[in-house]
Design a protein that fits this description.
Blueprint lengths: L4 E5 L1 H7 L8 H7 L6 H9 L7 H11 L3 H4 E5 L15 H8 L11
Antiparallel strand pairs: 1-2
Helix pairs in contact: 1-6
Length: about 110
């Protein structure tokens, strides 16, 4: 019997929990830590699940967001439902977002 393990990439949730709602805000923070990525690379890093990740980038993200690798990468057993992927005792970032009362800013249309 083979166990198939997958993972969920939680960068977007961790950014939101830290009050960071724009991918462009990561650019100067990563540059301060010696990581040079284009805005499109950072966008893909936030939006897509990376197949490969430089450990320097991972360490910089953990430093910026004040989190651990366990907060950014959650392993899941692909044979089970998604609800079993959250570690026992772990609090999802969405709970923090709700508790802090963070809401998206409404768009302002100007001439």
């Amino acid at each position: 019997m083979t166990t198939v393990i997958g993972y969920e990439w939680r960068l977007r949730e961790q950014m939101a929990a830290a009050g960071m709602f724009s991918t462009t805000k990561l650019i100067p923070l990563l540059q301060e830590r010696g990581i040079q990525l284009s805005s499109s690379q950072i966008y893909r890093l936030v939006v897509d699940k990376p197949e490969r990740l430089n450990l320097g980038v991972l360490a910089a993200l953990m430093d910026i967001l004040g989190c651990t690798a366990d907060d950014l990468i959650v392993t899941v057993d692909l044979g089970r439902s998604r609800t079993t992927s959250i570690a026992v005792g772990a609090e999802p970032a969405s709970t923090t977002i709700r508790e802090q009362g963070w809401r998206p800013k409404p768009a302002r249309i100007t001439d």
